[in-house]
Specification:
Layout lengths: L1 H5 L5 H4 L6 H13 L9 E5 H13 L5 E6 L3 H9 L3 E8 L3 E2 L1 H10 L2 E6 L13 H13 L4 E4 L24 E6 L10 E5 L4 H12 L4 H13 L2 H26 L5 E2 L7 E5 L6 H10 L5 E2 L12 E5 L8 H23 L11
Parallel strand pairs: 2-3, 2-5, 5-6, 6-7
Antiparallel strand pairs: 1-8, 3-4, 7-8, 9-10, 10-12, 11-12
Helix pairs in contact: 3-9, 4-5, 4-8, 10-12, 11-12
The chain binds pyridoxal-5'-phosphate.
Pyridoxal-5'-phosphate binds next to helix 4.
Length: about 350
């Protein structure tokens, strides 16, 4: 940032209003190119994190009162964004490993006047699911035929644990119906608040909406990121990060197996930094979260990930805090809390029999 600011021309503050700094957009366009995608800089709008990109996308393709299809479970930020804009959510079944169920989506589209879909096809939050390339292609085709925009939230896409970064659904977009939203928040620098949207056929509307809502994204952050992408090896950084996340996931899974109640089911995503757990019947994850918080441990209860609070025995664990020596203690405490809940649930359901009194 220091280097970038030394070179900053004050006129840039005017020149780099929405859609954002041209050199940064060029660097992002090159990154699309490195995975074989043709996304010109002119299609990109720089935003304040992916959250603004997603909100602008929603605003550009819907009117208050419209129906938007979302995954279930889904990122609570999506639920909040829909609520804020007065939109109605309709949930599409989503598999913990393979993501959006296309048959369920087809049914939802037949039954509801869906105006847009907001999906995370790669390393979904909270489950970490990833749709196959074939399913992504089918999804894009299905929505394009029906003229339904796909708002693709791809903030975890760069965090593949293996060598291959799964291409976003946008890679199969031939007609501009996909609005691909991402950021550097999860992969490089959350505090800089730099995100973007590749808006397809909606790019001009997005640029205008960005201008009307906040004029521009903070220029020092844009220039610092541009400087970094031009002169440093983002890919080398990503390789190290992915490797660490993969090791951390393995460690976390081993600890869960050791300390959590028998019957706990857990996902094993190929990227990102979340694990999604289904605990045995009898555990309430909201109580668990509150008890854990008193011990200084943060987890996300399943309740947060659906409008109807249906994931009451589910938990999302974040293993993104690399090499934290407190991890084992924290997982053990969570396991103890879950086991204690199960024990008291079993005791409550067992008939109390006092051996001294005679039966009626
Ligand atoms: C799925 C998902 N989308 C979007 C965001 C927001 O990203 P940003 O910090 O770049 O605004 C988050 C952050 O938690 C997220 O998990």
């Amino acid at each position: 940032m220091t280097r970038a600011l030394k070179r900053m021309d004050p006129w840039q503050t005017v020149e780099d209003l929405s859609p954002g700094n041209a050199l940064l957009r060029h660097q992002i366009s090159l990154r699309y190119g490195s995975v074989g995608m043709d996304v010109p800089a002119s299609e990109l709008v720089i935003t304040s994190g992916a959250m603004e990109a997603l909100n602008l996308a929603l605003e550009s393709v819907t009117q208050p009162g419209d129906v938007v299809a979302i995954e279930t479970p889904t990122f609570y930020g999506a639920l909040q964004a829909l609520e804020r804009r007065g939109l109605r959510a309709v949930e599409v079944e989503t598999h913990p490993r393979t993501g959006v169920d296309l048959d369920s989506l087809a049914r939802v589209i037949d039954e509801h006047p869906v105006k847009a879909c907001w999906f995370m096809p790669t390393f979904q939050n909270p489950m970490g699911s990833t749709m196959s390339d074939a399913a992504k292609e089918q999804l894009v085709g299905m929505l394009a035929t029906r003229a339904i925009p796909l708002i693709e939230d791809d903030v975890y896409g760069e965090l593949a644990h293996g060598a291959r970064r799964p291409p976003p659904a946008k890679a199969w977009d031939r007609t501009g119906w996909v609005l691909h939203c991402s950021s550097f928040s999860k992969s490089l620098a959350p505090g800089y608040r730099i995100g973007w949207v590749a808006g397809g056929r909606f790019a001009a509307t997005l640029g205008r909406n960005k201008l009307m809502s906040s004029l521009a994204t903070a220029l020092p952050s844009q220039l610092a990121l541009q400087e970094y992408l031009q002169h440093k090896s983002f890919d080398r950084h990503l390789r190290a990060l992915r490797h660490s996340l993969s090791r951390q996931q393995a460690a976390c899974l081993r600890l869960i197996e050791r300390y959590f109640p028998t019957g706990t089911q857990v996902t094993c995503p190929e990227g990102g930094y979340f694990l999604w757990l289904a605990l045995p019947e009898g555990v309430d994850s909201l109580t668990l979260q509150q008890d854990a918080l008193r011990l200084g441990i943060g987890v996300a209860p399943g309740h947060l990930f659906s409008a109807d609070r249906r994931y009451t025995r589910h938990l999302r664990i974040n293993y993104g805090h690399l090499a934290d020596p407190r991890l084992e203690g924290a997982i053990r405490s969570l396991g103890d809390l879950a086991n204690a809940q199960l024990k008291s649930a079993t005791e409550k359901s067992e008939p109390i029999f006092d051996g001294h009194s005679s039966r009626p």
